[in-house]
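thread: overnight batch results

M.L. [08:02]
morning all. the overnight job finished for the chain we discussed friday. pasting input first so we're all looking at the same thing
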Amino acid sequence: MKIAILLNLKNSQVKVYTEKIIKKLKSLNAQILMLSSYKNIFYNKNIIFCENIDELMACCEIALTIGGDGTLIHVAKYAAHSGKPILGINLGRVGFAASLEKDEIDKLSLLVEGNYVIEKRAMLSVEVQDKKSQKSFLALNDAVISRCGISKITDFFVFYEGKTFEYRADGLIFATPTGSTAYSLSAGGPVIDPSMRCILFTQICPYSLFSRSIIFSKSVQLEVKTRIESKNAPFQNENGNKESADNADEANISLTIDGEIYHKLTKQQIVKIKLSKMKANLICLCERNFCDTLEKKMIRKI
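M.L. [08:03]
and the structure it wrote out:
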C-alpha cells in the first residue's frame, strides 16, 4: 500500500511522532511517500519523494496527515480532486476531523489491512465573479465573507431563489456540516451531523435582536454582494494621513476559505456558493459515532 504522509512542520511534536508512524507503517510493509521538501528531515528512511502535492496525490493510494484539523483540511482539498481517501492523526488541541490521536498509532495496522470505513463529507464550491474574471475555490469547513480594516457597519445582500435578503453584520459564514463545529459554532451557529449534505449560514455579530442561523438544502445556490455604509467622513490611515472612507471601502471586504485562503473582494464582485460535486473521503479506523466525537472533543473540554 502506498501511503502519502503530509505534516504540519510548525508543530514541535511532529518530527518525533512522524518517525514513529513511519516505523510502524514500514513494519506493516507499507510504502511511504512524502514531499521532497521533507528530504532534509526524513533522509535515509527508504521514502519516495515527490516534487509537489499534486504529484504526491497522484502516486499514493491513501493520504495521511499529521498535525491538527488545519493540516487535514488543507490536504483534503487536494485529496478530493484526486479522489483519494485521507486519514488524520491529531497532534493539535481539538482534532475534530482526525480519526486517530497520537497515542493510537498501533491502530494503523487497521489501515493497511483495509479494515476501515470512509465518511463522505460535503464540500463547498465557491466562485468569485465579475464582468472580467472568475475564480473558484473548494472548502471543507467554511467560506467567510467579512469586513476588514476600519470597523463600519456592512450591508450584505444574499440572493436566494429570486429573492434578496439584506443582513447588517460584521460578516457572513457559509459552512458545511463538517465546518459547523468551527467558526460558525463560535458565532452561535448549531452543530450539524457531518454526514448531512447542506449549507449552514451564520451571521457574525449581526445588527439584530433576532438573528438566527439558517440551514439550506443541498440543491441551493446562494449569491452574495456587499455594501459598506459610509458618510464620506475621512479617517487617518496607518501613516497618519487623512484618506477618503469611500476609497478605502473598495477592497476592504474579504473572502476567506477554510481559514487559509484570503481573497479581497471589490464592490462589483459576486460570490456564488453551493455544495460541490466533490466530497472529502475521511477514513475512520475506530468504531465511533458523531455523538461520541462531540462529547470527547468538545463537551468534556468545557
